[in-house]
Design goal:
The chain is an alpha/beta fold and 361 residues long. The protein has 13 helices and twelve strands.
Amino acid sequence: MSLNKIGKPIVTQQMVADAVDVHLSTVSLALRNDPRLPERTRRRIQDAAKRLGYTPNPLVSILLSRVRRRNSDYRGTLGYVHTAPADTPRLTERVFRNYIEGAQRRASELGYHLDEFSLGPSLNGRRLVEMLRTRNILGLVVEHMPGEHCPDRRLPFDINPFAVASLGVPLADPHIHYVANDQYMRAVLAAREALALGYRRLGLVVSENFDTRMAHRCSAGFWAVQEYTPGLARLPICLLRKDEPAALRRWLSQHRPDVVLGTHHFVLTQLQSLGKNVPGNLGWVHLDWVPEFKNSSGVYGNSDQIGAAAVELVVSQLHRGETGPRTHGVNYFVSGTWQPGKTLRRVGPSLDLDAAFFSDS
């Protein structure tokens, strides 16, 4: 029998398995608190391991982790749940495609397959849980989109048997881990680049409901820049409906921004339809930039990394044997990336936002 550094016998998982008359793999699952084992079995094995004095070998744990990462087929399947029907047009947009593509890539890297499910007329919450149980799916990424199949941002199914993380629009209930792009810092990043080119009258145009659904993080970042950066004009936010260009016209006429930060591409189209020369007499920054808008200056949300991070949150819970709502949910915010384009130009002396906005003085 091997001895540790202080002369005591080293208790192995095989010794625990022999003591409780189970297979070695069952001990491994129980010590990871894997929910695939009945709770009574897990407790019996864990109690035996504690009684025998078993402690994990950190070097072996690292080695096994590396081996598992190489074996892409051994872990199982995760679920990716859309709270909107599969034929919802918005699911074909780049951001939503990036979510699922990033999630699929990271799941594969961690040794999981990823199956998609869409709530809708043919799949309600009860039926979804039945399907997940039948397929032995224990981990879920939930992509929430407001709609009749997930009213009031409340999931219509029981998540207690599952390890779960969400992305997209934040859920009101249940309380689970959440991943999103950093809307607050998107506005700050866009302002930093605009100020460096000499713009001083920054205006924010957000479409109706967008800022509300994102817990007002975008407008909060914009407000903070105006509040704490000396020398900037304080322009009110323009709340815009897609079918009301008159509201944008009135706002432009009254407040005269020299650059507009917008959350949707149709804002640029409306600006141009109102006779604005971009970037001749008005700058434009797309706060939800994607490659389709490559001519625009903007902030790319790296939505594929959001999908990947959601998978990592789910897998980490599976490894710890955690399921159901979280008492202390974690919110991860993925940083955006600045994308230079043709809708901004130099209009004056540079202002260093970092020196002003982040100053300790």
